[in-house]
Amino acid sequence: MSVLGTILVVDDEVRSQEALRRVLREDFEVLCAGNAADAEKLLEGEIVHAILCDQRMPHESGVSFLKRVRELWPDPVRMIISGYSDSEDIIAGLNEAGIYQYITKPWQPERLVDIVKEAVQLYRLQKETETAGVDVKATPGHIKKVVSVKRGVAKQLYDFDRIVHSPESPMHKVIELGRRAADYDISVLITGESGTGKELLARAIHYGSARANKAFVVENCGALPDELLESELFGCKKGAFTGAYQDRIGLFEVADGGTIFLDEIGETSPAFQVKLLRVLQESEIRPLGAQRVRKVDVRVVAATNRDLEAEVEAGRFRRDLYYRLAAFPVHMPALRERPMDVSLIAEGVLSSVKTSFNRPGLRFATSALEAFARYHWPGNVRELQNEIQRMVVLADADELQAPPLLGRRNGKPPAAAIQGKLNGSATLKDKVEDLEKAVIISTLERYEGNISRVANELGLSRVGLRNKLSRYDLRKNA
């Protein structure tokens, strides 16, 4: 049975501890401590969602203890349980210790369970809305309403029908695949070049699924070293590693019941891939420095601009993890493969830019749309968006002309542009060099000039790649 969260009960009376454990254990993992010192030891080794603390204990009051907890472990929702209704205690608890609820004895089991459920819900909502560690005065119901409204807006914004494409576009088949994947709780692997809209499709799958009312969280797996990535995804305890200054709930736990989008999954190390595979197999995480594992119910959508099958064959990506992630693969076509969509996307981008830049009269000249159609867009939709924003900033009139720089750039993909040379009468050495140059240019464009990733893709050292860049005068491309 899946538990809703971890509760720490602090009470000097063993019978009270046992009574609370007996009532809560069906829905929660319950930890018990007889005094503040033992409670702090548990907080140092466990991630706790809520604390139920007796007010009158030997040596230290509950309010005094929770005030210290507020400073050292601000995330758990703090509650006092007491047989006394001293108004000074209540005021002190609210003002000094950030108490969420003051529960009086004798308590009713059903009501107590409801209060603790609300506290755990508050903890998760605070994390989801990025207010962790901030004492929220609103009730869980109010925060839930705010989050619900935000999810409703997101569901409309990221609907499949909002993905711009023409009827004859290859995106039509992609969207149909996405709709089918949304109906089933299956892992999805989205492949495609950078800037093709992989995250947009992932969001549409989430908001079109039965998990739409739960969280959708995103992590770029290529942006962090292993230890930080593990902390981000699985959580950590304070002091688990250098730089872990506070407890952190992992994104897998934030996404419990919802979807996690793992972007750039192909950039992860073999060591991290082992840990991720175990999480996907067992549906449980162990935060760094924590003593216990926690069950999670998360749908995984992963994305990469690498050829993961080739990475598997090369031994750089685990075969078992690949098959776990790629239960339902979807490939996003590059923008140059869907020229019929370019003008539609451009008009949509301009509509948004007009609003954000307060230029309501802007429109494209015919020559601009024709230039867009001729260009091969190595940076895909992201490059198109950047180009339109640049055009708007530089425009003195409402009619946007074809950007001069776009016309001077090579209008064909490097491989196509070099084809004439390969079919010509050059020597074999020259043809090989032209082909090598075309491959390097194409890979540089695909990875947006990232030297490390290009070198890894081509099986070169960084020094070897830089020598070739110098030889072919390609340094500016990187």
UniProtKB/TrEMBL annotation:
Keyword Nucleotide-binding part of the UniProt annotation: yes
Segments forming domain Response regulatory: 6-120
Every Sigma-54 factor interaction domain range: 164-393
CDD domains named among the record's database cross-references: AAA, REC_HupR
SMART domains from the UniProt entry: AAA, REC
Keywords from the named record: Activator, ATP-binding, DNA-binding, Nucleotide-binding, Phosphoprotein, Transcription, Transcription regulation, Two-component regulatory system
Keyword Transcription regulation: yes
Pfam families: AAA_lid_14, HTH_8, Response_reg, Sigma54_activat
Gene Ontology molecular function, alphabetical: ATP binding; sequence-specific DNA binding
Top-level taxonomic group: Bacteria
Transmembrane segment boundaries: none
Modification sites for 4-aspartylphosphate: 54
Protein name, as recorded: Sigma-54-dependent Fis family transcriptional regulator
Organism: Bradyrhizobium frederickii
Source organism phylogeny: Bacteria, Pseudomonadati, Pseudomonadota, Alphaproteobacteria, Hyphomicrobiales
